[in-house]
């Protein structure tokens, strides 16, 4: 049984990743921590609670975390995901609320109390994890593995010309994690993978509508702003789901078809802020992370559709 902790800036694709984790039979989602990113952290918490309740997993504890990046001001992605991060549908408020306690303490306490047992998946800026690493420099070794959806290894960005949002939003945090990482402990998956291997095409969206389950409708509706953005701003015929693709690689390692150990330094200067291009020189320093470069897009969509076909009892 995979025991997961998920750290998320819950916007619309994070929510779909939470559904995958919450409804996977071979996985126990032990807790969710939230961080500012796509939306301010109270909204990320609300969206995580709402999503878990919709999945019939309202008992999973949610802990709120950092309100802003370590150094920089908060810059949200509401232009992409909607003002509420969930497509501006006027969703109801969740029944539950965040548990007492800060996400940083939860990451520290849970990893220390179950060394080598828990798998951490981060879906937002690395602020919570970096702050925890600054308090315990060996923290990453206390997890079974840490997977981060972050970066643009080919330097094709979605936030700047060369940087991906989670790395760009809190580059100092990403830097702290990268410096403490080792390739057997930490895997990064960039947003490029979802765009290359797993775009939700118009046919996929049609199939999602045909599924006609509450979870399929929820997924299609909360991603409507992303779909608009992808079509109008980036010219993509469909929308991409970076966080669900990352989650699929964790839940189903057989879907990962190419990895690369790499030395990644996170650019901190203003010009290249958040760039995460690996050092591929012949004499590059030793790898600090494993990068996932390709996933089985067909297998990802099968997992997604199987999950969204589920009908959750009230
Ligand atoms: C990442 O940024 C956010 O907008 C998404 O939720 C995802 O985590 C993709 O660059
Ligand atoms: Ca995210």
TrEMBL record:
<dbReference type="InterPro" id="IPR015910">
    <property type="entry name" value="I/U_nuclsd_hydro_CS"/>
</dbReference>
<dbReference type="InterPro" id="IPR001910">
    <property type="entry name" value="Inosine/uridine_hydrolase_dom"/>
</dbReference>
<keyword id="KW-0326">Glycosidase</keyword>
<dbReference type="GO" id="GO:0016799">
    <property type="term" value="F:hydrolase activity, hydrolyzing N-glycosyl compounds"/>
</dbReference>
<dbReference type="InterPro" id="IPR036452">
    <property type="entry name" value="Ribo_hydro-like"/>
</dbReference>
<dbReference type="InterPro" id="IPR052775">
    <property type="entry name" value="IUN_hydrolase"/>
</dbReference>
<feature type="domain" description="Inosine/uridine-preferring nucleoside hydrolase">
    <location>
        <begin position="5"/>
        <end position="302"/>
    </location>
</feature>
<keyword id="KW-0378">Hydrolase</keyword>
<dbReference type="Pfam" id="PF01156">
    <property type="entry name" value="IU_nuc_hydro"/>
</dbReference>
<protein>
    <submittedName>
        <fullName>Nucleoside hydrolase</fullName>
    </submittedName>
</protein>
């Amino acid at each position: 049984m995979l025991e997961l902790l998920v750290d998320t800036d819950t916007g619309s694709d994070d929510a779909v990743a939470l559904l995958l984790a919450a409804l996977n039979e071979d996985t126990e989602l032990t807790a969710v921590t939230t961080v500012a990113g796509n939306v301010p952290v109270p909204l990320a918490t609300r969206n995580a609670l709402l999503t878990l309740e919709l999945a019939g997993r309202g008992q999973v504890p949610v802990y709120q975390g950092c309100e802003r990046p370590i150094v920089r001001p908060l810059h949200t992605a509401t232009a992409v995901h909607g003002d509420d991060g969930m497509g501006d549908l006027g969703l109801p408020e969740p029944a539950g609320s965040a548990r007492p306690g800060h996400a940083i303490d939860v990451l520290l306490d849970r990893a220390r109390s179950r060394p080598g047992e828990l798998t951490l998946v981060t879906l937002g800026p690395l602020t919570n994890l970096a702050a925890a690493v600054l308090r315990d420099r060996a923290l990453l070794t206390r997890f079974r593995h840490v997977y981060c959806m972050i970066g643009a290894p080919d330097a094709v960005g979605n936030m700047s010309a060369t940087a991906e949002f989670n790395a760009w939003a809190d580059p100092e945090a990403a830097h702290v994690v990268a410096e403490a990482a080792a390739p057997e402990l930490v895997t990064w998956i960039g947003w490029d993978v979802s765009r290359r291997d797993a775009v939700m095409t118009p046919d996929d969206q049609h199939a999602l509508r045909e599924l006609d389950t509450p979870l399929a409708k929820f997924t299609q509706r909360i991603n409507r702003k992303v779909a608009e953005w992808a079509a109008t701003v980036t010219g993509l015929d469909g929308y991409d789901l970076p966080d669900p693709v990352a989650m699929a690689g964790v839940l189903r390692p057989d879907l990962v078809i190419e990895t690369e150990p790499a030395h990644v330094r996170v650019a901190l200067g203003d010009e290249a802020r958040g760039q995460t291009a690996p050092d591929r020189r012949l004499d590059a320093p030793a790898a600090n992370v494993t990068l996932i470069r390709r996933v089985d897009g067909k297998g990802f969509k099968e997992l997604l559709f199987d999950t969204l076909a589920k009908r959750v009892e009230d």
